[in-house]
Amino acid sequence: MSNYEEWQSQEFSHLMTDKGDKLCHIKGNELCHITESDVCCVVHYYIVDEKGYLINNGVRQTRLGQISPKLVQATEALRIEWLKKNDDVNDYEQRQEERRERYLEKAEKARKEREAVHSQARDMSSIIPLGQPILVGHHSERRHRRTLDKIDNLYRKAFVECENKAKHYERKAEAVGNGGISGNDPDVIWKLTLELQRLIANQELMKVCNKVIKKYHHTDERKKALMEVGLKEDLADKLLKDDRFGGIGYAHFTLSNNSATIRRISGRIDEIKKLKELSVEIKEEFECFTFQIDKEDNRVKFIFPNDKRPDEKIKQLLKNKAFKWSPTRKSFVRQATANGILAGKYLKLDIIKYLDSIKS
C-alpha cells in the first residue's frame, strides 16, 4: 500500500463539510469526494479556497457545502507529521511502560508486606486467650501489655502504612502516561497536531450545529438537520433540550473555551518546533565531568566519572540551576527547554571555573 492510499485509509484524513458530506484529504488544500454505487465508483477532486468553498475545474461547487480552511490546514500539518512518524514504540513510551511496571511492583511488594504483617499480628493474637483480661499486679502484666501494643502496632502497619503505600503506588502507576502530552515524548508534535485537528473539527461542528438550530424552528426539523451534519440521534436529542441556562445548542462559553484550547495547543506546537530547531545535540567531555544535551531524551545532563556524585560545592551549583540527580540516567539532569539549555551552558562554565580554582 502506498503512502497516499495508507493516508486515505486513516480516519483522521476524512473531513466533513457543513452539510455533512465526507471528503478525503489528499495533500495541501486538495480533497476528493467518493461516490460509490453498484455499478461504479466516481471520484471528484476539489481545491479548497480561502473561504472554504470547494473548487472543481475553476468553478465553485456549492452542492457539498463548505469546509473550514483552518481544518484543512491542520489536516495537512497532521499529514506531514504522519509521514515522519515511526509506527514502532518510541523510547519514551518504553520508559513510561517500565516506570509503570516499577510502580506496580512496589505496590505488589507493599501488598505482600501487609499480608505478612497481618499474619504476624494474627499469630501473636492467638497466644492470648480470647477475652483474657490484663491481670493488674501480676508478674504477667508487663508482658501482656507489651504484646497488646505489638499487636496493635502490627495491625496499624498492615492496614494503614502498607495499605496506603500500596494504594499510593497503584495511583502513581495509573497516572503514568495520563498527565497530558509530554514534551519529553519524541512524537509530541504528532500527538499535539492530532489533538489540534480534533479540536478544530469539533469547533466547526459546534458552529454548524448552532447555525442549524437557528435556521429551523421545529424540533423535528432541527433534529433531522443535526443528524444530516453528522450528529448521532442521542446527541442531537441532548442538544435540543434546554440546558441549565435555558438555552439549546452549544453555549457560547463552550465554543470560546474550545477556541482558547486551540490557540494554546497551536502556540505550544510552534514553541516546540522552535526549540527543536535551536537545540543541537552536544556532548562535551571535560576532565571531571561530561556535559550533554540529549535531544532524544530531551534532557540537559551533567555526567560525572564512574556515576559518582560530585563534591558539595558542585552539588550546590547544580541545585541552584535546578538540576536534579536521576538514578536511572546516573547523571544530574534538567529538561531541555530554552531556559534549561541556557542554564546548563552557564553552569558548565561555573563548574570549570570552580575546578580550576581548587587546582590552583
UniProtKB/TrEMBL annotation:
InterPro entries: DUF3560. This is DUF3560 domain-containing protein. The keyword Coiled coil applies. Keywords: Coiled coil. It comes from the Bacteria. The keyword Coiled coil applies. Residues 93-120 form a coiled coil. Pfam families: DUF3560 (PF12083).
